[in-house]
C-alpha cells in the first residue's frame, strides 16, 4: 500500500481507487429495510438474528443487550478485533495507523468526567461511571466509513446520545452540540506536533445528535473501549465520515451557532461541517465512490461501492431533505 502524506489525512493514492465503472459490487442492504422507512424504529426479524459477537477477553466486560433500534445492525461480517484496535486514527497519539495502539497506553481513563454545559436546564459534570449507568447498554454493529476511503464494521456498545440529551433538558437556544475531547500533552505525545489545533473538537446539528442511531459509545466487542479507540467514551455517528466521531470526550456543549470543528477549521475546502458519507461528492483529492474494507487486503480483494449516508439513508435521509449536499458537504 502506498500512501501520500501531506496536510490532511494520510490517504490512498488515487491510482488505487477503482473507477466506479470497474467494480460490480454486491449491493449491501440494511437489515430491516424491508419493513420500510416508516417502520424502521421497530427491530425487524433480521435484527433478531444478529450474531452475538465473541468477546476477546482482553478488557473489562461491558454487558449490552441487542439493540432495539432498527437499522442498528448491518449484515457485513464484523472487522476483526485486532484490525479495529491496530488500524486507528487518533492523532493525539501519532499520525500513523499503528501509532495509537503503540502510544495510547499512557491515557488515563479514571478518574474521568464529562461536563455538560451551555443551553441546557440541567448542566452538570458526570463521572464516567455514572454515565455508564445512565441508560441500558446496547450492542450495535455499525459500518464505520473513514474519509480516507476505507471502512470497517464494528460491534460498538453504548446507548443513544439522545438518552443523555433528554436528561439535561436543552433549551430553545440549543441548535447544535459541540464535543470537546481531551488534550493533555502529558498523556498524549501527538499533542506536541501541531498537526491540528487541539483540542480535537466536533459537532452535530441538534436533530443529528438526537437521532437514535447516534451512539454514545463506551465499548466494542462486548468490552470497554481500548484507549486507541477513544476510551473511555466517544461518539459514533454511523452515516458520517469517521472524523465526526470524536474520541475521549470531556465536554459536551449545547450552543446556538454552528460550532467550530477541527478538520473543518484546518482544511475547510476538504472537510465540511456535515461530512455525510456521499459517494457522489468526491473529496477534492480523491474519489469517495468506493472504499477498501479493512481486513480484505488480499491481491484480489475488490473495493466496495460506498453507500449513500453509509447505507443509513432510510433512517437519516429525511434530516437533509431539501439541502444541497454538494454545498453542505
Ligand atoms: N478523535 C480524536 N480525538 N482524535 C482523532 O484524531 N480521528 C477521527 C475519529 N475521532 C480522531 C478522533 C477519525 S479520522 C476517524 S476515521 C475515527 O476517529 C477512527 O476511529 P477508530 O480509530 O476507532 O477506527
Question: Could you explain the architecture of this structure?
Answer:
It is a single chain. This protein is of the alpha+beta class. The protein has a single domain (3-320), classed as Sulfite Oxidase, Chain A, domain 2, CATH 3.90.420. It contains eight helices and 15 strands. The chain has helices at 45-48, 81-86, 99-103, 128-132, 161-168, 206-210, 262-266, 313-316; strands at 3-4, 11-12, 65-66, 113-118, 124-127, 138-145, 150-160, 176-181, 201-205, 215-220, 223-224, 234-236, 249-255, 290-293, 304-305. The strands form three sheets. Strands 3, 6, 7, 10, 11, 12, 14 and 15 form an eight-stranded mixed beta sheet that branches. Mean pLDDT is 88; it is low at 14-49. Ligand MTE is lined by residues 88-92, 144, 146, 181, 200, 229-230, 242-243, 245-248.
Amino acid at each position: 500500500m502506498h500512501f501520500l502524506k501531506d496536510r490532511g489525512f494520510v490517504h490512498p493514492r488515487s491510482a488505487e481507487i477503482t473507477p466506479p465503472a470497474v467494480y460490480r459490487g454486491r449491493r449491501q442492504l440494511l437489515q430491516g429495510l424491508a419493513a420500510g422507512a416508516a417502520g424502521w424504529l421497530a427491530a425487524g426479524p433480521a435484527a433478531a438474528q444478529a450474531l452475538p459477537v465473541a468477546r476477546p477477553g482482553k478488557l473489562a466486560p461491558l454487558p449490552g443487550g441487542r439493540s432495539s433500534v432498527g437499522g442498528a445492525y448491518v449484515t457485513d461480517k464484523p472487522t476483526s478485533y485486532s484490525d479495529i484496535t491496530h488500524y486507528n486514527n487518533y492523532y493525539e497519539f501519532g499520525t500513523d495507523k499503528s501509532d495509537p495502539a503503540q502510544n495510547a497506553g499512557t491515557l488515563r481513563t479514571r478518574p474521568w468526567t464529562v461536563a455538560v454545559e451551555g443551553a441546557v436546564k440541567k448542566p452538570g459534570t458526570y463521572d464516567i461511571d455514572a454515565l455508564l449507568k445512565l441508560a441500558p447498554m446496547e450492542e450495535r454493529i455499525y459500518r464505520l466509513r473513514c474519509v480516507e476511503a476505507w471502512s470497517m464494521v464494528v460491534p460498538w456498545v453504548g446507548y443513544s446520545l439522545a438518552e443523555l440529551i433528554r436528561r439535561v433538558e436543552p433549551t430553545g437556544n440549543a441548535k447544535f452540540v459541540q464535543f470537546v475531547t481531551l488534550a493533555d500533552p502529558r498523556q498524549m505525545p501527538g499533542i506536541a506536533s501541531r498537526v491540528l489545533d487541539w483540542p480535537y473538537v466536533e459537532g452535530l446539528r441538534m436533530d443529528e445528535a438526537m437521532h437514535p442511531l447516534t451512539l454514545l459509545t463506551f465499548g466494542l466487542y462486548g468490552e470497554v473501549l481500548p484507549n486507541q479507540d477513544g476510551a473511555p467514551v466517544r461518539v459514533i455517528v454511523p452515516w458520517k465520515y469517521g472524523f465526526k466521531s470524536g474520541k475521549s470526550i470531556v465536554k459536551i456543549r449545547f450552543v446556538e451557532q454552528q460550532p467550530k470543528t477541527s478538520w473543518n477549521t484546518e482544511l475547510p475546502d476538504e472537510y465540511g461541517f456535515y461530512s455525510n458519507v456521499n459517494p457522489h461528492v468526491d473529496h477534492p483529492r480523491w474519489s469517495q465512490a468506493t472504499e477498501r474494507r479493512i481486513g480484505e487486503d488480499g491481491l484480489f480483494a475488490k473495493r466496495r461501492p460506498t453507500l449513500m449516508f453509509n447505507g443509513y439513508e432510510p433512517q437519516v435521509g429525511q434530516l437533509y431533505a431539501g439541502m444541497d449536499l454538494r454545498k453542505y458537504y
